[in-house]
Design a protein that fits this description.
It holds the Pfam family Talin_IBS2B. This protein is mostly helical. It is built from 19 helices and two strands. It folds into two domains: 263 residues, A middle domain of Talin 1; 130 residues, Four Helix Bundle (Hemerythrin (Met), subunit A) (Up-down Bundle). The N terminus is likely disordered.
C-alpha cells in the first residue's frame, strides 16, 4: 500500500519539478521551432564545409539522422503515454524521459531545417545563402540556454537546488558563455567597421562579467545553502538575461548574419513541406507537455491521459509523412553545384557537439539502402513501418517515387518536384503550408484544448 501511494500520489516537490520541466521543454521546443521552422528562412543550421556540400552523400547523411531522430521520438512519446496511463507512475524516470523527448525534438528541428535547406537550394534558379560574420542560430541557442538556466534558478526554492542540479546548470551556463564569446570574437575580428569590431569586444566583456558574477554566486550557495545566498543568485540572473538579449539583438542585424538563400517557387514549396511536417511533430510534442502538466495537477482526470494519447497519434502520423517524403526523394546534385564558400574558422569546424548523438556518416548506395529498409520500423514493438503508414498517413503515390519526364527536363532536382507533386495529387488534403500543417492552435482544436 505504501509503495502504490508513493508511486501514484505525487509529493509537492515532485509536482513542482515536473511542472517546471514541462514548461521548460515546452518553451525550448517552441522557441527553436519559431526560429528555424516558422520563420521559413532558408539558412543552413550546420555550417561546417562538409555540411554545406550539395552532394548525395551529404543528403543521405542528414536524411538518415532525421529518420533516426523520428524513431527515437516515437519510442519516447509512446513510453511517456504508457507510463501516464499506468496505475503507478515512476516520476523520476518519467521526468527523465520527458526531458529526453524535449532534446530529441530540438535536435530533429535542427536536422530538418538543415535538410530542407539542402533540398531547396538544389533546385535550379535557387541560390545558396550568404554566410555572415555571426552564426545566427548558434548565438540564439546560447541565449536560450542562459535564459532557461536563469529561469530555473529564479523559480527554485532552497531545497530544490541540490548539488547535482547546480553543477548541471553551471556547466550549461559555461558552455553558453563559451559559444557567445566564440561568436563575438570572430565577429570582432572580421566585421567591416571598426566601431562594430569594438562593439563586439565590449559585448564579450559585458556577458563575461555578468555571467561570472552569477556563477560565483551559485558556487557560494553550493558551499553554504541559505535564503540569502539564493537571493544573491536571483539578483544576478536578471543582468545575465538582459545582457545576452542585448547582445543577440545587436549581433543579429542583417549586416552580420548574412542573407538567406534565394529560392525558386518549386524550391520554396519543397522547403516549406519539410518545415511544415516537422512543425506538426513539434506542435504535438508541445501539446503533450501541456497535457502532462495538467495531469500533474489532477492525476485522476482521464481526459488529460486521452490528450496525451492523441498527441502521440499526431506525432506518429506526422513522422510517417516526413519519413515517406525523405525516403522517396532521390537527391541528385544540380550541374555545377559545389560547397558554399566560407572564410570563417568557425564555419570550417562547424558545431562538433551536434555530431555526438548521430551515427557515423554513411557512404555508398548500399548503406543508404540498408538504412531505408531499417528506417521503416518506427515503433519499439517492431510494427512494420509500411503498415503503420497505411493507417497513420496518406500513401505516397508511385509518381512521387519515380518522378516524371517533364520534371526531369525542367528542374535541377526533378525527383523532389515529382515527390511534391505526387503527394499533392494523391493527397489533396496535404497542404504544404507551414502555418496549416504546423499550427499549434489546429492541434488544440483537434484534441479539444485551449489555454
Amino acid at each position: 500500500m505504501v509503495v502504490v501511494a508513493s508511486a501514484v500520489v505525487m509529493s509537492r516537490h515532485n509536482g513542482r519539478e515536473v511542472v517546471m520541466l514541462c514548461e521548460e521543454c515546452h518553451s525550448k521546443m517552441l522557441a527553436v521551432g519559431e526560429l528555424l521552422l516558422l520563420s521559413c528562412e532558408a539558412r543552413p543550421v550546420f555550417t561546417a564545409q562538409t555540411d554545406l556540400e550539395l552532394s548525395r552523400e551529404t543528403f543521405l547523411h542528414y536524411r538518415d539522422r532525421v529518420i533516426d531522430k523520428l524513431n527515437h521520438i516515437l519510442m519516447a512519446s509512446r513510453d511517456i503515454a504508457s507510463q501516464a496511463h499506468s496505475g503507478a507512475v515512476q516520476w523520476k524516470a518519467f521526468t527523465a524521459r520527458l526531458q529526453e523527448l524535449g532534446g530529441l525534438v530540438v535536435a530533429l528541428t535542427e536536422l530538418s531545417a538543415h535538410i530542407a535547406y539542402l533540398m531547396a537550394v538544389n533546385f535550379e534558379r535557387s541560390q545558396t545563402s550568404a554566410l555572415g560574420v555571426v552564426n545566427k542560430y548558434k548565438l540564439h541557442q546560447a541565449q536560450l540556454d542562459l535564459k532557461f538556466c536563469c529561469s530555473r534558478l529564479k523559480r527554485s526554492c532552497v531545497d530544490d537546488l541540490d548539488t547535482h542540479l547546480l553543477v548541471d546548470l553551471c556547466s550549461t551556463i559555461s558552455r553558453a558563455l563559451s559559444s557567445m564569446t566564440e561568436v563575438c570574437r570572430y565577429a570582432s575580428e572580421n566585421a567591416r567597421e571598426v566601431d562594430d569590431q569594438n562593439q563586439f569586444k565590449l559585448c564579450i566583456k559585458s556577458i563575461t562579467s555578468t555571467t561570472s558574477c552569477l556563477i560565483s554566486s551559485v558556487k557560494r550557495f553550493k558551499s553554504s545553502p541559505s535564503i540569502d545566498h539564493l537571493r544573491r543568485i536571483i539578483a544576478f540572473c536578471d543582468p545575465v538575461v538582459a545582457t545576452s538579449s542585448a547582445l543577440v539583438t545587436f549581433a543579429s542585424e542583417e549586416e552580420f548574419v548574412g542573407m538567406p538563400a534565394k529560392l525558386s517557387d518549386k524550391a520554396t514549396e519543397a522547403h516549406k513541406s519539410v518545415l511544415g511536417m516537422t512543425m506538426s511533430i513539434v506542435s504535438a510534442s508541445i501539446q503533450m507537455c501541456k497535457a502532462i502538466r495538467d495531469l500533474v495537477y489532477d492525476l485522476s482526470n482521464s481526459r488529460h491521459k486521452e490528450r496525451i494519447r492523441l498527441c502521440v497519434d499526431s506525432v506518429d502520423k506526422a513522422s510517417s509523412k516526413l519519413r515517406d517524403l525523405l525516403l522517396s526523394c532521390d537527391f541528385e546534385p544540380k550541374t555545377g553545384s559545389g560547397p558554399t564558400k566560407t572564410g570563417s574558422p568557425e564555419r570550417q569546424t562547424g558545431s562538433p557537439e551536434r555530431k555526438t548523438d548521430s551515427p557515423e556518416r554513411k557512404t555508398g548506395s548500399s548503406n543508404a539502402d540498408n538504412v531505408s529498409a531499417n528506417a521503416r520500423v518506427s515503433s519499439p514493438d517492431g510494427v512494420d513501418g509500411s503498415a503503420e503508414r497505411e493507417t497513420g498517413s496518406e500513401t505516397v503515390s508511385p509518381d512521387a517515387k519515380t518522378g516524371s519526364d517533364d520534371a526531369k527536363s525542367g528542374s535541377g532536382s526533378p525527383d523532389v518536384a515529382a515527390v511534391l507533386s505526387g503527394m499533392t495529387a494523391s493527397s489533396p488534403s496535404l497542404n504544404l503550408s507551414v502555418s496549416s500543417m504546423g499550427s499549434i492552435s489546429d492541434l488544440e482544436r483537434d484534441i479539444g484544448v485551449s489555454d
